[in-house]
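Anyone have tokens for Lactosylceramide alpha-2,3-sialyltransferase? Sequence:
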Amino acid sequence: MCPAAFNHEAQAKRQLTTSLCLYWTDCGNTNTMVMLNHLSVEDPDDGSPLLPEAAEAPTPTPVSHRQRVVTKTASKEFFVRSRENLIISVLLLIGCYSAILIPAYFPLDRVATPSDDYLIPKNLGLLNRSASLLSDPCRPRWCLDHLKPLSCSAGLLDIPVFVQQDRLWDLSPPLGLQGSEEHLALALASLPQPGLPPSLTREGSCRRCVVVGSGGVLHGSHLGSHIDQYDIIIRLNNAPVDGFERDAGSRTTIRLMYPEGAPHSANEYKKTAMVALVVFKSLDLDWLTSVITKQPLSFWSKMWFWREVVDDIPLTPESFKILHPEIIHKTGQVLQTYTMKQGNMLPTLGASAVVMALQLCDQISLAGFGYDMQHPGARLHYYEAIRMDAMKAQVVHDVSAEKRFLRDLVSASAVTDLTGAL
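Reply: yep, here.
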């Protein structure tokens, strides 16, 4: 090879080496790309290229343009996701309201079907004691005479039972009727006999009464036939008798309730003599007027009840009464001596019914009273499968104070506990 050819070949190899070094050096830099356009070196001898000609690379997109594209895409995705999140939030909100309002305005009937779990009484001793009590003659003024040793007895006597006239009230419902005077006047005008009926006065005969609570302890008691033998049978809210006659009896003299607690089944009123309304708000009096006069409440008024209320109760106007708020007030004052809570006590309807019975009856028995909070899995009500631990969620009533109060009544022999849970 001649020196000129050798020099030419050496020059070509140096050019090739330099180009390759530049290519691999800049490929390691993330911010720069070297494009090798038309990179070829011909051999001076045969004219063949030492490297194939590189394809022409596309011009890179400017950084500023890429940023605008990415920003536009991200913004579009953000609005799409925001719209999806809004739809999901609305659906969740509707679901939450449905979970609250559907049970309230379309309540599911959770009343359990009576079973044959207890073909024999679960406590024969209590059943025999109840039978023995009924076999004895009624003793006049038995309750009043046995109340005297109790320190709270003064607050439990001579309380009016039913409202019979409008007057000035110094407390709001349910402890009074302040602010509800107009509603009360309309309700009283629809009642033919607003006060205590002659059939419930103490004059003339001795009366034995039973207050039937809703407690699960009544389940399996087989006390139904005994309960039906009492002169006055007091029940609470929507506690059913239809289908539960074996344990709870079938007759009702007074059903103490507020509108949301009124039974929806007409069968529950077949053997009912009287319904006594417990007023918790002015609208409750409007509901009573509506039921008696058969003039339905407006849709707007119904919205203010915390669950669906009945439009019709198959009883005559003479069968409706308004519980005197003094019963609730005085019961709360007595319970205040059994609790550490401050302020006005709001008693349960059960405790209030016992105090009402003290005004009407000579002898009083209790059935289905006593929450067993030591056994959270025990049956809460005799007619449904809810368990005792559900009571932990309520904060309105002091059931422990009420149990101590009722125990004192039982210990003084003022009342008799038929189911033995007090």
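The beta strands are 208-212, 232-236, 252-257, 272-277, 320-322, 363-367, 415-417.
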